[in-house]
Amino acid sequence: MTNLTLGNWTTIFYIGFIILQIIIYKKCNLKVLLQFPFSYLMGMILDFYDQLFNFPPQNMIISIVLLFIAIVLIALGAYLVVAMDFVPNPADGMVNALSYLIHKDFGQMKWMFDCLMMTITIIMTLIISGHVIGIGIGTVLSALLIGRVIQLYAKLFGQKLDQIVLSSQTKRNNEQSIMDI
Fold this sequence. Notes:
Elements: H1 6-25, H2 30-33, H3 35-52, H4 60-83, H5 90-102, H6 106-129, H7 137-180
């Protein structure tokens, strides 16, 4: 139906997420702007790996184990990037902006956002092609679990990580004040 690849669609959605973040925050800061090059890079990487690893799984048990390892690591990465105030990927930046807007914790908002995106994908593919495309057990489990695992990380490490980030920001501000003198 379209000549756009998964990477192209990811880039388009990521740019939309960046624009929505600017609207939600009512400003355009460097952390949001730096998500633009990430969007293009991520689209290219997705298309590259889609071509490189375009084969069905051979062993279901290994696939399930790898899926759960991926869920745990993706949740850890998203949690650390947002908690440490680094530049997030545009989807996690969007989740963080929504979390800010409606005062929900990042993990809960991530769970809601991922389930919403999965639902939209199901509806769109049903309308366009008459059947569901691109949604398998891995997508469903990822949507249901990544946000919940982030909430677990926040409960286990949140207070300590907040102290580290605050200490780092205070040190950076002090260094900046010294340089201003």
